[in-house]
Write a structure and sequence with these properties.
Strand content: 15-25%
Number of strands: 5
Distance between the termini: 72 Å
Strand order of the largest sheet: 1-2-3-4-5
Helix content: 40-55%
Shape: rod-shaped
Largest sheet: 5 strands, mixed, barrel
Number of helices: 2
Order of helices and strands: EEEEEHH
Number of domains: 2
Structural class: alpha+beta
Length: 142
């Protein structure tokens, strides 16, 4: 669904009273809801008129009746592209998170295996050796 906002361009379908069967360009001047707007409409030669509380058709499956308006094909295409990109991004994030979760699980298994093999007891000694080495170098430079 495309959210209507003031200033957006839509296509208005004239009524029999308007004596025209060609859709007219219209600008949204007020938004009542996602499916109801006020319009400044321009006929085929650019003469303006207004329509209030016009039904805005949101879905392609629904036919725009005379006196109603709809999004231009460009807007419909942009909304479809945005939807496809959002879905693709969501799938990518889910795949990434599964990868991170699997990597973390594998890392946890490796840590447990190292601890079981006795390597965990050596880690503090290695830290102490690194500290001792740093202190020795510090003494030499002073």
């Amino acid at each position: 669904m495309i959210e209507p906002t003031i200033g957006r361009v839509v296509l208005y379908r004239p009524t029999e009273e308007d004596r025209d069967e060609v859709r007219h360009a219209a600008i949204v001047t007020m938004v009542h809801s996602n499916v109801s707007v006020n319009l400044a409409v321009f006929d085929g030669v650019g003469v303006p008129y207004n329509r209030q509380t016009v039904k805005l058709t949101q879905e392609d499956a629904e036919e725009t009746l005379p006196g109603g308006c709809e999004w231009m094909e460009y807007h419909k295409g942009q909304a479809a592209n945005t939807s496809e990109i959002s879905e693709s991004l969501e799938e990518t994030v889910i795949e990434f998170m599964h990868g991170v979760t699997n990597s973390m699980a594998a890392m946890a298994e490796r840590i447990v295996a190292l601890e079981d093999a006795g390597f965990a007891d050596q880690a503090p000694e290695a830290e102490d050796d690194a500290k001792d080495l740093g202190e020795d170098e510090g003494e030499k430079t002073e």
